[in-house]
Every structure is written in structure tokens, then in C-alpha cells.
Specification:
Elements (H helix, E strand, L loop, with lengths): L1 H5 L2 E5 L2 E6 L2 E5 L13 E4 L9 H7 L5 E4 L1 H7 L3 E3 L5 E4 L2 E7 L15 E7 L2 E5 L16 E5 L8 H11 L3 E5 L8 H10 L5 E2 L6
Parallel strand pairs: 3-4, 4-5, 5-6, 10-11, 11-12, 12-13
Antiparallel strand pairs: 1-2, 2-3, 7-8, 8-9, 9-10
């Protein structure tokens, strides 16, 4: 089932993903979406920064039935019917479960822990997908259970490839996917360094931009 769900995960660039789950279409941090992107059943927004919280992109995939989950400050930018979450909160839609987890920097100022910004653990068809959000390698990751982990690797604003290797080893997913490269900051080299660092230990798959 992990492979089946993984095949439904589309990287849209940067930290943005679409998951065509059996129970609905999920977007995470939709940003610079292709035209005519399919409508969303659920939109997850990790924090308020423009490259993660893009009201125009959200509006382009939002319907009256779309559930939007995000932190308080991002909710104010998005408007409308938005469910505010903080780390530790969870909610369900159909047979999907969404848990908010911490995401923050430990040695840089861009994503303070006090802001309460988010990563998400999505559970669908018994498979758990962890989107780390903009974060460093933080202690809370050791308690996250995930089959598929989407981890930033670029450094500068988030953990670099070496730290992302440590994060993946702490989480222990079946599949790890690098993100937060190729736009704004980071390059394919960061993703390759991440894969090389986990060679023989975790199955790293570098997705192509959809």
C-alpha cells in the first residue's frame, strides 16, 4: 500500500505537493500551481510565508467543500472558512486523518518555535505521510511515525542535506523525499547529497517537478 500511495504524490516544486489520495485530493503549501490544477478536498498550509501561504493559488483550487487547515497567522491571510491548528491538534475528513506537528528553526531566526508553525502527518489507507514544513532537525521528529517523509534539504532557511539525513534516520520512513530546493534556495545537488547520505539505509526518491 505504501507504493500505491507514493505513486499518488506529485511534487509541484519547492515545498508544494498534491496527493491524489483515494478519499480526496490534498494540497500542501500550494504555490505557483499549474493552470487548471484539479480542485482540492483538503489544503494544508504550514505557515504564513509567501512561498507557502499563497492566497491566490489556494483560491484557484478551493471549492465550497474544501477544508483548509493552517496556523493562525496564515489563516488571517487566506480568509474564509479555515480551521486553525496548532502542534498537537488533529482532525479527520472521510477516512483521512491530519495531525499538526511542530516545525521550527533551532539555530536561525526565520521560523521561531514560538510562532507555532506546522508540519503535518497525513494518514490515508493506513499509510502515514509526513510533510515537515520549514524546519530544522528538531527533537520532536524522533516521536513521528511515518511511512513516507517529505523533508527540506536546502539549508539557509531550513535544515541542510546533512541534517535532513539525521532527521530521516530519526523518523525511519520506508521512503524519504527531499524538498525545498530548486526554487528560491537550494539545488538538485542538495537532493543528491541527501540521497547519498542515506544510501543503504533509507530509500530516497527524488521526484521530478509535476
Amino acid at each position: 500500500m505504501i507504493e500505491k500511495i507514493f505513486s499518488k504524490i506529485h511534487w509541484l516544486g519547492h515545498d508544494s505537493f498534491r496527493i491524489d489520495a483515494p478519499s480526496g485530493t490534498i494540497y500542501i503549501d500550494p504555490y505557483e500551481l499549474p493552470e487548471n490544477s484539479p480542485p482540492a478536498d483538503v489544503v494544508l498550509v504550514t505557515h504564513e510565508h509567501f512561498d507557502h501561504c499563497s492566497p491566490g493559488d489556494i483560491a484557484s483550487i478551493r471549492t465550497d467543500a474544501t477544508m483548509v487547515l493552517t496556523a493562525k497567522d496564515a489563516a488571517a491571510k487566506i480568509g474564509g472558512d479555515v480551521r486553525i491548528m496548532k502542534p498537537g491538534d488533529s482532525t479527520e475528513l472521510a477516512s483521512m486523518r491530519f495531525a499538526a506537528v511542530p516545525a521550527y528553526n533551532v539555530d536561525k531566526p526565520f521560523h521561531p518555535q514560538s510562532n507555532g508553525w506546522l508540519g503535518f502527518v497525513i494518514e490515508t489507507e493506513g499509510v502515514r505521510i509526513y510533510h515537515a514544513g520549514d524546519t530544522d532537525f528538531i527533537p520532536e521528529m524522533a516521536s513521528i511515525s511515518a511511512d513516507i517523509a517529505l523533508l527540506p534539504v536546502s539549508g539557509t532557511y531550513v535544515m541542510d542535506a546533512r541534517e535532513a539525513v539525521e532527521a530521516a534516520l530519526a523518523i525511519g520512513p520506508a521512503i524519504a523525499v527531499p524538498m525545498h530546493f530548486g526554487a528560491i534556495v537550494g539545488s538538485r545537488r542538495d537532493a543528491e547529497d541527501f540521497r547519498q547520505g542515506l544510501k543503504g539505509r533509507v530509500d530516497v526518491r527524488i521526484l521530478e517537478h509535476s
